[in-house]
Specification:
By secondary structure, the chain is mostly beta strands. Helices cover about 10% and strands about 55% of the residues.
Length: about 800
């Protein structure tokens, strides 16, 4: 027995020694298999979630991005490492660093709070890359930013007034132009893309901007891209993009109610006061609410606007409603399902142009009575119209951000318009936008976005688009129904390499109308931005673009106000490109009692357009006299200019002040102009209308101003704020000559104001009891007479009182 015990002892000791040796061999493998799962949420210093924050461990080559709720998950295979460094980075915040040790539970919560750098000199934008956040100073193109605080201070009912304050931007009766890219074509065929959360807001029939669908009480910021932007945004971005970005609900519910009431004052010329003592009035009610309900984000906005109109017969009632829903299922982190619905109903009267600047004197029972004038409509030949326009938008979306930072995003928009009126120019149309986007980061330096866009549209308007026309030599009889479709594939790389930022994008798009011949459009965009010193950047960019003429430009077959419009289905798409070089100096200072940030940006630009489309005389038959109008390819154009913009924000104690504005100089040249001796001149020589050799193709492009100035100064002390909006356009040198025959007294009015139109608005507001604000706005403080478009007088001095409560 003793011998067996001795043998067992030797065997067991040998087995233990082998087990010990085996454990030494296996332990590294066990360490390699050690895995740590981090889960948490990234918030700012106010506790609000931050989406798109990069959370990574460089040594392990792993990383992810936070979702819209600020949540993230990151698995770390620690290997032999006892600890690793975790980094969280986000534009506008210092880099956050912490150590993660191998010892401990396999699953660990780790919430991260990022504190802003105090006073950033640059805003953060996303529109240039269509998703990734970039500092404004690092951009390769010009982008102006309007923050929600500025919009709130202006106490406006609609976004059009806010947009018109951006340097280089002009809004002519709803037709937006950036740096002179567009003239005026009666609201048809925009060369500026308007988007809401990345998707177009242009109507199917006329490609006009649907400004009424912009939710002014829920805007996070507005970004204005200047220059050709078709690579990411497709057709109609020939002159740039106005990108409106909505705000997501915060952790705490938000509610806002605004009540506005106003009255138009007396016109500068008392003879134009058509309503006497019954001054026109306006008012609106704005209700907004947003909140989080578990995994659901809910936003509601409802607006009612009413005014009797400062022009006779131009009363209006508008209803605007918006609902936004977002659902983030907890079992599928990174997934967001969205559905938005907006509805706008506009019942109003409109005037094509005035009856005449000088009122008529008529006899009523033998007594002379003044009637008519610049604020009264032309009743004959369709110059005055009552309309009921309804727009409905439904936006589905699916967004998925993977743990490793890959973003898959589908966004759709079904936009339907029903336009009814008493001038036999009715139409019904729809357009369905679809965009499938993929985005990721390559080598931790390059943001890559790619996608495919598809658009389908249908238009029906027998009274507006019906009739016969000639297409490719064939005479076609149309019932007014037209269809269109386009498909575009795009890709863009935005890289940051030390001091150098780069951008390169490509797009290929195909467009087709009514199943006829197809157009293919390949386009390119490239840009560079180099940081010379702290706050000092230089940039250069090149971008191609195109614009497909709208259905209204191709097939409109109607008349109004004495103007006969005929279709032109053979019209060609516009093509062009833009060049820009710029230098930007930023400045930021934080010291006890004083915070200052500012920038000054100087840009030189050029835009070239081929086959530019303009509305004008297409047929002039003299015997018998028969003058017709159409949209035609009339010119190649070159627009060169210089733009100086600046921004200052200072905060000291209870005082604060800001200034935002700029000056734009433009030289808009028609490269196919006729000699001056052959230029139609219906002011000096009205008989030129009978001279077939004279043409209305001037050297200066129509409806452009050489100088435009925008300035928005603000000063405040504690709860009191005083803000101004100043805008100036120099004299518009050339307009359509035929208007001098159609619009009475137009030549006189233009000669009366040869130095352009300066207009100043002022707003004073007081905050009280933390949640309440009262504002008084005086638009057109000096009661200036000015034209929005020829024959369309701008509003006189207007007083608006607003009360707002937030809770």
């Amino acid at each position: 027995m003793h011998m067996y015990a001795t043998l067992f002892s030797i065997w067991s000791q040998t087995l233990l020694r082998r087990a010990y040796l085996l454990s030494l061999l296996v332990s590294p493998l066990l360490l390699t298999a050690q895995s740590v799962l981090l889960t948490g949420k990234v918030t700012d210093d106010l506790g609000q979630p931050l989406a798109g924050v990069s959370v990574s461990v460089v040594s392990l080559r792993v990383g992810t991005y936070t979702d819209q709720a600020g949540a993230y998950q990151l698995t770390l295979d620690m290997g032999r490492a006892a600890q690793v460094e975790l980094i969280a980075s986000y534009t506008g915040y210092p880099v956050f660093r912490t150590l993660v040790v191998a010892d401990g539970p396999a699953e660990r919560p780790l919430d991260i709070q990022l504190t802003a750098m105090g006073f950033q000199q640059d805003e953060v934008v996303i529109s240039q890359s269509r998703g990734i956040q970039q500092s404004q100073a690092d951009l390769t193109g010009s982008i102006d930013v309007i923050k929600s605080q500025s919009i709130d201070l202006q106490a406006v009912a609609s976004a059009d007034k806010v947009i018109n304050q951006v340097p280089g931007v002009d809004n002519q009766d709803g037709q937006i132009s950036i740096r002179g890219s567009s003239g005026y074509a009666y609201g048809v065929g925009s060369r500026v893309m308007l988007t809401l959360d990345g998707l177009p807001l242009l109507s199917a029939s006329s490609s006009s901007a649907s400004l009424d669908l912009i939710p002014v009480d829920n805007i996070s910021q507005i970004e204005v891209l200047k220059g050709a932007s078709s690579v990411l945004y497709g057709s109609s971005a020939l002159g740039g993009v106005i990108s409106v970005i909505m705000a997501d609900p915060q952790e705490k519910p938000r509610t806002s109610i605004r009540l506005r009431a106003g009255q138009y004052g007396r016109p500068y010329n008392p003879a134009l006061d058509w309503d006497g003592d019954a001054n026109a009035q306006l008012g609106s009610i704005h209700i907004f609410h947003s909140r989080k309900i578990g995994p659901v984000d809910f936003t509601l906005q409802s607006n009612t606007l009413r005014e009797t109109g400062y022009r006779q017969g131009a009363s209006s009632t508008e209803l605007r409603n918006l609902v936004i829903l977002k659902y983030r299922p907890k079992p599928l982190p990174g997934l967001t399902l969205g559905l938005n619905a907006s509805l706008s109903v506009d019942s109003s009267g409109s005037i094509l142009y005035w009856r005449g600047y000088f009122p008529d004197t008529v006899l009523v029972q033998g007594v002379p009575v003044v009637s008519g004038g610049a604020l009264t409509p032309t009743l004959a030949a369709g110059g005055f119209r009552r309309q009921l326009n309804t727009e409905l938008a439904i936006d589905p979306s699916v967004k998925y951000l993977t743990k490793s930072g890959h973003l898959f995003w589908y966004r759709g928009r079904y936009l339907r318009s029903d336009n009814r009126n008493n001038t036999n120019q009715e139409s019904q149309n729809f357009i369905f936008y679809n965009d499938f986007l993929y985005q990721t980061t390559l080598f931790k330096k390059v943001n890559w976005v790619s996608g495919i866009s598809a658009t389908f549209s249908g238009i029906q308007g027998d009274s507006l688009f019906g009739g016969s026309y000639v297409f490719n030599g064939d005479t076609i009889q149309s019932t007014g129904g037209h269809t269109g479709n386009s498909v575009g594939v795009y890709t863009q790389l935005d890289g940051k390499f030390g001091r150098l930022n780069t951008s390169l994008g490509l797009r290929y798009e195909t467009v087709q109308f009514d199943g006829a011949s197809r157009e293919d459009q390949p386009i390119l965009r490239a840009g560079l931005n180099y940081k010379l010193a702290e706050g000092l950047n230089v940039r250069a960019s090149f971008g191609q673009a195109f614009r497909v003429p709208s259905v209204a430009e191709r097939f409109a077959n109607t008349s109004g106000g004495g103007v006969v419009v005929e279709p032109n289905p053979n019209i060609r798409s516009e093509r062009g490109y833009s060049l820009e070089v710029a230098i930007r100096q930023g400045y930021a200072r934080v010291s006890p009692g004083l915070k200052v940030k500012a920038y000054l940006d100087l840009a030189g630009f050029m835009m070239r357009f081929e086959d530019m489309v303009e509305f004008g005389i297409s047929k002039r038959q003299l015997f018998p006299l028969d003058i017709r109008f159409a949209s035609t390819n009339i010119s190649n154009a070159r627009l060169t200019g210089v733009e100086l913009t600046g921004y200052v924000l200072a905060d000291w104690g209870k005082w604060f002040a800001s200034f935002n504005g700029g000056v734009t100089w433009l030289d808009p040249i028609n490269l196919n102009a006729v000699p001056d001796s052959l230029q139609l001149d219906l002011v000096t020589y009205p008989s030129d209308i009978l001279n077939a050799s004279k043409q209305d193709i001037p050297r200066i492009l129509k409806y452009r101003s050489t100088w435009t100035v925008r300035a928005t100064p603000t000063i405040g002390y504690g709860p009191v704020t005083l803000a101004g909006n100043f805008r100036y356009k120099s004299f518009i040198e050339t307009i359509d000559q035929y208007l001098y025959l159609v619009v009475s007294d137009l030549a006189y009015f233009r000669s009366k104001y040869p130095k352009g139109d300066p207009v100043l608005d002022m707003t004073a507001s007081v905050d009280f009891l933390k949640r309440h604000r009262v504002s008084l706005t005086v638009d057109n403080v000096f009661n200036r007479e000015y034209l929005i478009v020829p024959g369309f007088l701008g509003p006189q001095r207007t007083f608006i009182l607003q009360y707002q409560i937030k809770f």
